[in-house]
Design goal:
The chain is α+β, with helices and mostly antiparallel strands. It is 42% helix and 15% strand. The chain folds into two domains: 3-151 and 354-362, 3-Layer(aba) Sandwich (NADH Oxidase); 165-343, NADH Oxidase, CATH 3.40.109.10. The strands form three sheets. A five-stranded mixed beta sheet has the order 3-4-2-1-11. Strands 5-8-10-9 form a four-stranded antiparallel beta sheet, sandwiched between helices. Strands 6-7 form a two-stranded parallel sheet. A hairpin with a 7-residue loop joins strand 3 and strand 4. The two termini are 22 Å apart. Bound molecules: flavin mononucleotide (FMN).
């Protein structure tokens, strides 16, 4: 990109925007109101604020939203918010950087639709910050951008239908970018083998007190909690009933059992059309970011085709299983980054997000 032509004045555009967000003192009246505001379509005249908002709609681990955006003239920078890291499930911050990659991909797609050209740069020192340089271009209709406010991780049973070769090709191609390989597994016996790793991983995680405590800390047991925090795993988006927190905490050990969860994952995989595994070229932050970007593109393309998808990362989260599934998949010494199931089926209520102003520093 020619730096002289970087758009001037868009930082001011963001600062001066009047697009409504949640004011700190006026939380939305209901979960449905919050969903409407969070997942509203992109405002074509929204400038950099809308590009940041698109970033916040990316998939992100445990819905921790571990990001800080900085907006200046013609540039948006995204960096980790380490206060929101999850040391039990993600000790090396792999998921945190994959999450930033998801946000970056959404920003790039939104920018294109809003009439900007982008260039993405990962800082070379410690690969901690990603800068998206933005310059004025022509708006172009973009089915991936149109899917940004419809994409969700759907943790429901799917309907067992297969996906056509044409659609498989489209989602696989969307997920094959930046040196990331997107392996699509659709043969039943291979899906069953991956289910076996998911069950082993889930069993290990449910026996790990630190993992369970961290997970429970991010569960929002009812609509009130979800609206108050605007982050975390809301009961609704996980397909669970909204309950008073004190009741839900007591019920959890009774309803969330190893066997119950493992049976649920078996139903989830057996009702899916396939499993996608993302494998980046390098096992470092740049590679993890690239895996997140590739996954997000895949998910946007799937959404555009009315295909649902959800993560099943247990086999890549439990360190002892990672080399085992890598060997099974035949990917040599490369790290398997993300595991996703996909298929046709119903949607669930979406998760919530904190507003742009809560996650953005203006320069
Ligand atoms: C790197 C990464 C890892 C994730 N791992 C899991 C997972 O193992 N299981 C799961 O159910 N969801 C997982 N998710 C999905 C998030 O929980 C989900 O994106 C978040 O709750 C926001 O919901 P949404 O994507 O539907 O908007 C992961 C997401 C990312 C980006």
């Amino acid at each position: 990109m020619d730096r002289r032509s970087i758009l001037l004045g868009t930082g001011a555009m963001l600062a001066g925007s009047t697009i409504s967000t949640f004011a700190a003192t006026t939380p939305p009246a209901s979960y449905d109101d919050a969903v409407k505001l969070v997942w509203r379509p992109l405002d074509r005249s929204g400038g950099l604020r809308e590009i940041v908002r698109a970033g916040t709609l990316g998939a992100n681990s445990h819905n921790t939203q571990p990001w800080r955006f900085t907006v200046s003239t013609g540039l948006i920078t995204i960096r980790p918010d380490f206060d929101r890291r999850c040391p039990a499930v993600d000790p090396d911050d792999h998921h945190l950087f994959a999450t930033l990659g998801c946000a970056v991909e959404n920003m790039v797609q939104a920018a294109t639709a809003l009439g900007f050209r982008t260039e993405v740069m990962v800082d070379s020192a410690n690969q901690e910050r990603v800068t998206v340089a933005i310059e004025q271009g022509q708006p172009s209709s973009n089915e991936l951008a149109n899917a940004i406010n419809k994409r969700q991780c759907t943790r429901a049973e799917y309907d067992g239908r297969t996906i056509s070769a044409e659609d498989l090709n489209k989602i696989g191609t969307a997920g094959t970018v930046d040196g990331v390989e997107c392996l699509l597994v659709t043969e039943r016996h291979r899906m069953d083998a991956i289910l076996d790793y998911v069950v082993q991983g889930n069993t290990a995680q449910m026996r790990d007190q630190a993992f369970m405590s961290e997970l429970i800390a991010w569960i929002r047991f009812n609509d009130g909690m979800a609206i108050e925090h605007l982050d975390g795993l809301s009961a609704r988006s996980s397909g669970n009933p909204s309950l008073p927190a004190w009741i839900a905490r007591r019920l959890l050990p009774l309803v969330m059992t190893e066997k119950g969860e493992n049976d649920k994952y078996a139903k989830h995989i057996r009702s899916s059309a396939g499993i996608a595994v993302f494998v980046a070229a390098s096992n470092d932050r740049a590679g993890w970011l690239a895996a997140g970007r590739a996954y997000q593109r895949f998910a946007l393309q799937a959404t555009a085709l009315d295909i649902r998808q959800a993560f099943l990362n247990q086999p890549v989260e439990v360190p002892s299983l990672r080399p085992q599934i890598a060997t099974y998949l035949g990917i040599g010494k490369r790290r398997p980054n993300l595991v996703i199931r996909f298929g046709r089926g119903p949607t669930l209520p979406p998760s919530l997000r904190r507003p742009v102003d809560a996650v953005t520093d203006h320069i």
